[in-house]
Every structure is written in structure tokens, then in C-alpha cells.
UniProtKB/TrEMBL annotation:
PANTHER family, sorted: ADENINE-SPECIFIC METHYLTRANSFERASE (PTHR41313), DNA METHYLASE ADENINE-SPECIFIC DOMAIN-CONTAINING PROTEIN (PTHR41313:SF1)
InterPro entries linked to this entry: DNA_Protect_Modify, Helicase_C-like, P-loop_NTPase
Name assigned to this protein: Helicase C-terminal domain-containing protein
Domain Helicase C-terminal: 402-572
Family annotation (Pfam families): Helicase_C
Length: 807
């Protein structure tokens, strides 16, 4: 309400819905917004609208569904919105996209984008080395021109059915991370690790945020983006949210274009990576390091309200054991055989020329993940593994179902690597349901999130879970991870596989660690297959999540962040994982610990540099304050004698006594000084007060004229206009000399104590120095044992990151 555009980045379950609803209603009450719109995920429409009405029972709420925009009902819907006095309009993401901006507004924006690309092309054309970049920019320009031609040539029967016609002037967009794939034109198009996707959803939202801000004369007002995970996978996503929320700030800082932003807050990292065809190693450049992170977050926090779970200390149920429980599954013989075949495939990629379309390391890693979940995803004819994840999960779910039968507790099961399938095709979902039914669970108490296709079906399913009618709900992170508020009876959450992104872990676990859960204690269970990629995947994702959490919480010690890549594994890592070698997992832990201690070392070094500068400057400041204290001691004694008798002020060899007489004389001095202002500042002695000289300082402006007393030290009088005030400030100045002396004495004592403390501090080494050194030694040993630090011919890798961090 006060700051305008806001990124509402509160932890999962922190009550973002209530905040957005209350803010929009208050804006309506204060007439700062006329028609607020709330945009929510498709399956959360009825749930969000019900929450809004529960908070404000008398509110006039219009809930827009996809059916409202079907056929001739579009005109009726637009008319209802445009002419109605609504407190809130609630619609889904897909409905929001069905109401595009007008062709004129969109065309003007595309033309501006084309002009920006043309300017970038002209700048690059002067450099003969930029031919490749120019070609990339020309391709982008051609794409935008085609888009513009389609827009201008398409027939628009309902041209009035556009977003502007609704009269919406305030926009709250929930789960905004779904619109992070915003277009950008950049010279870094060939740099790996840089998200360059361009989704229609993000483009549509970007246009509407620009239009909304235009309603407020271009100020940062009218837009609220809410999500618990603004950084889903890469710190580069911060720039996207800045473009949505603070475009003027980026423009004023010269960071509007991504290349300028990346040059300020990012670095490309060049290192040896295995080639996609597995034939050897190659130097690859990635946008993988983010620098000046505290400065970036300072700018970002101007429009962001970041509240992590640790900051809020929400009343959520306790997690059993204070951490997720890991259920380790023994690999079957068929899984061991298959993983050995993966090693052979990786060996073949390394030694032979293999078409990457036929086989590559990414395919090997993906198939390894599928096999770790269930071998039947690789070969549906394989028999069920009684010790595999599906069987283990079924036993855990059944035991908890049995133990909590009296209270009708519910459980969630997440699985992203498989989906329900029709016919004879194998699916982990059907296999797990069959196992549960075989152990005695009623079929009607087991449900798939995929079976609820419409918004109303999802709302009904969620209600059944909250009521205890459905006690086991299976789903994937995209379908069940965001906005699924079924926490009331949840007692356990099962994760059959590891998601790709850190934000997915938070969204999954936020379903159960949430306000409104009746259970005092809940459990999160992760299933890991030995000798597979599972443990390594979890370690990597959680390490990355920890770094993102540190940055988002405002940790000033982190000046730089390295992005962690999980897409592919090297041949040596595949071989180590396949052999069941626990050292690959140990190495992941060692790497994470080294990164943590390296951050602490960076903070320690920065503090040490600051301490050294302080120690160098303190002796001079102490000496200066000692001289000042001696002068103030002498002046304080003189001030005491002046105050002991009636005040007499001598000005231009004439004595003045009494408040009125002294005040008028001082006023005449000040008036005369103001009349004599010149280009250069100066001071003049005009008389005396006891043993003090009385002077006037004449600056270069009228407000820079003031009186002062000078004894062993100078004492400035506060500038005043009237005679009585000038007399009072003269008395205050004389009386203030003794307190000034006392302050100086205390300051001098503090400086001496600080110098002693800093001198002692500089003699202390980094407290984790030995631990960091031992970790680096262990990391080298593990790299040597796992053969991770060698290229094809056995030479050392290009970069030695641990040594650089600890140097």
C-alpha cells in the first residue's frame, strides 16, 4: 500500500493469500485502487475465492472461470467486469491469458523491442569480432517482426474484448514463479546455464504490468507478485522479477538490459566438461557465478518483502526427528545389471564416436534415475521388486494409515518421474495403488491428483482429503506442489524421487509443514535406492537450496554464489555411483562443507581488512582526540567562571548586559554578516564573552551564517533569527562545553579499548582454518580415488576451485 509494487516472497504457508486480500480491500477502502484483480493457479480458484469471502463476508467478488470466456459469454463477462463495482475479481492464470492486451498496445511494445534490438545490432556492427552476436540479434529481430506481422494481420472480431476494457487498476498475481520465463535479448545467447526461454504467459503478464503502471503515470504501483520461491533454480531469475516490479530503478542504474545486469552481478565460468557425445572433454563457458550478491539484494529488496520460514517462526507441526527420514532400498539384481550397462554405455561414449542423438550422458543420467525409481519404467516386463521403492513406500503408507485410522489422518505421495497411464503401460502410480489395495487400503481412500481435471473436481478432491475421506493422495510436484492446501489432516509426506529444482523441494514439503495442520508432529520420508543416482541428486539439490536460502535471507557474508548443475553426470561419477561407491556421496558433502567454510573465510578476510584499516587510522584519531580533550578541559573551566557571574558580552568595544540588550546586539551582528556575504566563506572576531572570543562565521548563503565562541577550542552556536533566541543559544553553547568534554573523554576511552581489542583480534587466525585445509586435502584424495580430476590424457583439470577458495 505504501511502497507500491511488491514482491510478496513469503515462505510456503505464511498466509500470502490473506495479505493480498487484505491489501486489496484496504486499497479499495482508501480509494487508492478502483478494481483489483487476483490471478491464481488454475486449481486454486474456488479455494482462493472462498478464502477471500471468509475474510470479508460482505465483499462483492466476481469469480471468473474458463467457461465465462467461452463463445458468446465473453461479451457478457467483459460487460459485467467493466460495469460492475467489484471489490475483487478472481480468475485463473489460463483465464487471465485469454484476455490479451489490445492489438495497438501490444504492437507498440513489440516495435519498441525491435528498436532496442536494432540499437544493439548497430553497437555490435562496429566490432568486427561480433559477427556471430549480430547474427543472433538479427534472428531475434526477425522473430519479433514475424510476431508483429501476425498481430497486425489477424482478424479481430472482438477487438473490444481486451484487458484494458475491464478497468482493472491493481493486479495481484499468485505463484508468480510460473511466469519467470520472460523474453530477453542478449549477446550471451550461446552461454550455457542462462535461461533464455520465452513463454507466452510471461510475455502476457509483462505487458499487463506495464499497462497497470502506466495508469499510475509510470510509477512503481499497482502490481503484486506473490510466490514462496522467487529463485526457482538460478539467481538470474532475480532480474526477471526486477523487470516486472522495478523497471524504472533498473533504467536509472543502467541495468535494464540483461547484459549490463549480468556484467554487474554475474560472471561466466569456463571449465572442462565432458562433451555431449561422451567422446572427450571440452572447454565450456557457463553463466554460473553470481557476484556482488549483497548489492543485488539491496536493490531487489526495495520492492521485495522476503520472509523465510526461519524468520517467521510459523506455528507449523514439528518434523519428526527434526529432519526428513531416509528409507534406503537395496538394489535388485536386475537394477545392478542395468547400472553396469550404463557404465558400459558411458565407457563407449568416452572411447568411441557415438551420435549424441543415439546416446549421450543426459540420457544415461535420466535412465539411471528412472531405474532407481522402478526397473519396470525401463522394461515393463520386469517383475515387481519386493525391496524396491514402490513396495517400501506401500509398507510405510500402510503402517501409517493403520496407526492413524481413528483420526483419519491423510498422506501425500510425490512422484515426478512417472504419471498415471491408461491401458497396459506401466505406471508407478498404478503399481503403488495396487500394492496398497493388496495390503488392505480401500480403493476409494486412494486418489490421483491427475484424475481431477477441472477446477471444481480439484476443489472437491482437496475437500475430501481435508475431511479424511481420501487418505492417500498421489501426485507430481507441478500438479500437487503449488497451492494445494490439504494440510488439515496430513501426517506424512513421501518423496519417491528427487526433483530437479530446489524450489520443488520447498513446494513439496510446504504442503505438510504448514499452518492449519492439526497434527502436532509430522513425518517426511524420502526413498533412496543404493548404488543409484538418488543420494547424489538429493545432495546436489539440497546444497543448491541452502545457498539460495542464504542469499534470500540477506546473508551479507556471501559475496558470490556458484550455481550447481544437476543435468548431467560425468563418466567417472556414473562409474562411482554404479559401483555403489559411498565416496561419491562423501565428496558431495565435502564440496558443500568447503563452500560453507569458504564463505566464512571470505567474511573473515573482509573483516580483517577492515580491522587493519581501523588499526592504522586509530592512533592518529586518538592523538587528535587527546589534544581536543586538553583544550576542552581548559574551556570548561573558563565556561564555569563565565556562568558563575552575570553574563557580559563585549561587541566592538561596547559591553552589553541582560537578555534583551545582548539579544539585539547579537541580532545586529548576524544581520550585518548576512549583508556582507561574498563568494568565499570567512569568519570574523567581533567581540568577547569572558575569556572567549566571540566571532561570526559568514558562509556563501544566508543560512550559512552563525555565531561561535573560541577559547582553546571553537564552539559553534546554533543559527537563530530573533534576539532572545540568539541569547539563549549563546548560553546553551557555554553550558554545553562541559558535556562536550565528557563525551570526548568517553570517546577517547572507547578508541583506546577498540585499538587494544582489534590489535588482539588481528593476532588470531581463521578459526576454521585447519578444518578447511583438511577438507581440501580430503577433496583432493576423493577426486584422485574417483578419477574426477583428470581429463582424457590424465592431465589435471583446468581450474582448482578449492585451492582458489582457500588461498
Amino acid at each position: 500500500m505504501q511502497s507500491g509494487n511488491t514482491g510478496l516472497f513469503h515462505a510456503v504457508g505464511a498466509g500470502k493469500t490473506a495479505i493480498m486480500v487484505a491489501a486489496s480491500m484496504e486499497l479499495r477502502r482508501l480509494r487508492l485502487a478502483n478494481k483489483p484483480a487476483h490471478i491464481v493457479p488454475n486449481h486454486c480458484l474456488e479455494q482462493y475465492a472462498a478464502e477471500l469471502v471468509r475474510l470479508y463476508p460482505s465483499a462483492a467478488v466476481l469469480m471468473a472461470t474458463k467457461e465465462d470466456l467461452a463463445g458468446d459469454r465473453r461479451r457478457e463477462f467483459v460487460a459485467r467486469v467493466a460495469t460492475g463495482d467489484w471489490d475483487a475479481i478472481v480468475m485463473t492464470h489460463s483465464t487471465f491469458e485469454l484476455l490479451p492486451m489490445s492489438a495497438g498496445f501490444t504492437a507498440d511494445f513489440i516495435k519498441d523491442t525491435i528498436r532496442e534490438i536494432e540499437m544493439a545490432v548497430r553497437m555490435c556492427s562496429a566490432d568486427s569480432r561480433s559477427n556471430r552476436i549480430v547474427k543472433q540479434l538479427e534472428r531475434m529481430k526477425k522473430t519479433w517482426k514475424i510476431r508483429l506481422e501476425r498481430l497486425e494481420n489477424q482478424e479481430r472480431k472482438d477487438d473490444f474484448l481486451c484487458w484494458e476494457a475491464l478497468g482493472v487498476d491493481w493486479l495481484a498475481y499468485d505463484e508468480a514463479h510460473s511466469a519467470k520465463n520472460l523474453f530477453r535479448h542478449t549477446k550471451m545467447a550461446r552461454i550455457a546455464g542462462l535461461p533464455l526461454s520465452n513463454s507466452q504467459r510471461a510475455f502476457d503478464l509483462y505487458l499487463k504490468t506495464r499497462y497497470t503502471m502506466n495508469l499510475y503515470r509510470g510509477e512503481h504501483r499497482g502490481v503484486v507478485l506473490a510466490t514462496a520461491t522467487p529463485v526457482a533454480n538460478s539467481m538470474a531469475e532475480v532480474h526477471t522479477f526486477q523487470r516486472y516490479l522495478q523497471p524504472n530503478t533498473l533504467r536509472s542504474l543502467g541495468l535494464e538490459q540483461f547484459d549490463a545486469w549480468a556484467a554487474t552481478f554475474g560472471e561466466t565460468v569456463t571449465a572442462l566438461e565432458i562433451a555431449p557425445d561422451g567422446s572427450g572433454y571440452r572447454l565450456n563457458t557457463r553463466f554460473a557465478r553470481f557476484i556482488n550478491v549483497p548489492d543485488l539484494m539491496t536493490v531487489f529488496c526495495d520492492v521485495s518483502d522476503i520472509r523465510t520460514r526461519e524468520m517467521l517462526k510459523l506455528p507449523v507441526p514439528a518434523l519428526k526427528g527434526d529432519k526428513p527420514r531416509t528409507v534406503t532400498c537395496k538394489p535388485s539384481e536386475s537394477l545392478r545389471t542395468f547400472v553396469r550397462s550404463l557404465v558400459k554405455r558411458a565407457e563407449r561414449l568416452k572411447t568411441e564416436r557415438v551420435d549424441p542423438r543415439e546416446d549421450n550422458m543426459l540420457m544415461i543420467a535420466n535412465e539411471g534415475r528412472l531405474a532407481a525409481l522402478d526397473m519396470r519404467l525401463i522394461n515393463s516386463r520386469q517383475p515387481a521388486d519386493p525391496g524396491g521403492k514402490v513396495a517400501q513406500c506401500a509398507r510405510e503408507v500402510h503402517d501409517i494409515w493403520q496407526q492413524t485410522a481413528g483420526l483419519k489422518r491423510a498422506q501425500l505421495v510425490f512422484c515426478d518421474l512417472s504419471t498415471p497411464k491408461s491401458g497396459m503401460a506401466f505406471s508407478v502410480y498404478q503399481a503403488l495403488r495396487d500394492e496398497l489395495i493388496g495390503q488392505g487400503l480401500p480403493a476409494e481412500q486412494i486418489a490421483f491428483i491427475h484424475d481431477a481435471e477441472t477446477d471444481s473436481q480439484k476443489a472437491k478432491l482437496f475437500r475430501q482429503v481435508r475431511e479424511g475421506k481420501v487418505r492417500v493422495l498421489l501426485g507430481s510436484t507441478p500438479k500437487m506442489g503449488v497451492g494445494t492446501n490439504v494440510q488439515r489432516r496430513l501426517v506424512a509426506l513421501h518423496e519417491l524421487d528427487c526433483p530437479w529444482r530446489p524450489c520443488d523441494v520447498e513446494q513439496r514439503e510446504g504442503r505438510i509443514l504448514r499452518q492449519g495442520n492439526e497434527c502436532a508432529e509430522v513425518e517426511i520420508i524420502r526413498y533412496v535406492t543404493e548404488g543409484s543416482f538418488d543420494a547424489y541428486s538429493w545432495q546436489t539439490v539440497l546444497t543448491k537450496a541452502k545457498f539460495i536460502a542464504q542469499v534470500m535471507s540477506g546473508d551479507k557474508g556471501i559475496r558470490s554464489v556458484e550455481d550447481v548443475e544437476l543435468a548431467t553426470l560425468t563418466y567417472a561419477e556414473v562409474k562411482a555411483l554404479a559401483s555403489g561407491n559411498p565416496k561419491i556421496i562423501e565428496k558431495a558433502g565435502v564440496d558443500a562443507e568447503i563452500a560453507r567454510y569458504a564463505s566464512l573465510l571470505s567474511v573473515w578476510r573482509n573483516q580483517r581488512y577492515a580491522n587493519e584499516s581501523e588499526v592504522a587510522a586509530l592512533p592518529m584519531r586518538i592523538d587528535s582526540n587527546q589534544r581536543l580533550l586538553v583544550a576542552l578541559e581548559a574551556d570548561a573551566n573558563q565556561a564555569q567562571s563565565v556562568l558563575a557571574a552575570d553574563l557580559v558580552v563585549n561587541i566592538h568595544r561596547r559591553s552589553y548586559r541582560g537578555r534583551e540588550e545582548i539579544g539585539e546586539a547579537l541580532r545586529a551582528v548576524v544581520r550585518s554578516a548576512r549583508a556582507s556575504i561574498s563568494r568565499s566563506a570567512r569568519d570574523e572576531v567581533v567581540g568577547s564573552v569572558g575569556t572567549f572570543e566571540l566571532g561570526v562565521f559568514i558562509g556563501r548563503a544566508e543560512d550559512e551564517v552563525h555565531l561561535f565562541l573560541r577559547g582553546a577550542s571553537s564552539h559553534e552556536c546554533r543559527a537563530c533569527q530573533t534576539g532572545p533566541a540568539l541569547h539563549a543559544t549563546l548560553i546553551d553553547t557555554i553550558q554545553g562545553i562541559a558535556p562536550h568534554r565528557d563525551d570526548c573523554a568517553q570517546r577517547l576511552a572507547r578508541m583506546r579499548a577498540k585499538l587494544d581489542g582489534l590489535t588482539a583480534e588481528l593476532l588470531r587466525p581463521f578459526e576454521h582454518e585447519q578444518r578447511l585445509a583438511s577438507l581440501i586435502v580430503r577433496q583432493r584424495e576423493l577426486e584422485a580415488e574417483l578419477d574426477l580430476g583428470k581429463d582424457e590424457v590424465g592431465s589435471d583439470a583446468v581450474e582448482d576451485v578449492p585451492e582458489k577458495m582457500a588461498a
